[in-house]
Every structure is written in structure tokens, then in C-alpha cells.
Amino acid sequence: AMDVFVLSSRWEGLAYALLEAMALGCPCISTEVNGSREALLGGEEEAGLLVPREDSTALAKAMNQLLGDEKARKAFGASAAKRIVDCYTLDAMIDGTLAVYRDVIGLPGEAE
What we know:
By secondary structure, the chain is mainly alpha-helical. About 55% of the residues lie in helices and about 10% in strands. It is built from five helices and three strands, in the order E-H-E-H-E-H-H-H. It has helices spanning about 15-25, 35-40, 55-65, 70-85, 90-105, and strands at about 5, 30, 50. Strands 1-2-3 form a three-stranded parallel sheet, with helices on both faces. Helix 1 packs across helix 4. The radius of gyration is 16 Å and the shape is elongated. About 25% of the residues are buried.
């Protein structure tokens, strides 16, 4: 039972903990490290809040903002769970990898 997941890393590749929290529909806040921008802000709807790395004031402000706004927490949580299904399942990752291969060798995609 968690109201908000916070990733306050200075460096990450792509934090599995962030993806796991998103998969559970938990609203997330992350410092701007590799992978977090794409995970939280890379779709049609934002899936959480992003703050500058090593800015404890911005992190605290984002935490207070989200903890005080139940509607935003629910919206971010729903968007986060959807983002995982759309982008981070095995099928989605295979489709993305195949799309890169098709593009590199000049083959049309499935939709074309």
C-alpha cells in the first residue's frame, strides 16, 4: 500500500523499480535520470512527475503536490499502468525491436 512511489536516483539506466511501481498503478515521481523521462512522459498522457536531479526542494514540492491531489494520483496511476502494457510488455518490446530492424534494413512495417 503506497500512495506515491519516489525514485530519487542520481543515475539510472532504466529503473526496474519505477517500472514495477507503474505496473501496479502507483503514481510516480522521479528525478530526471536515464529512462525516467521516457517512462513517465513519453506517451500521450503523463504517467507521473519528473524533477531535476539533485534538487531536493523540487522533489519535496512534487511529493507534497501529489500527496495533496488525489485526482492527480489516480490519473497518473492509471496512465502509468497503461504505459506499462503499451510499452514495456514482452510483446511491445519485441514489436519495437522488430520495427528498428525493419527501419534499418529498409523493410516496410506490418501496418504498411
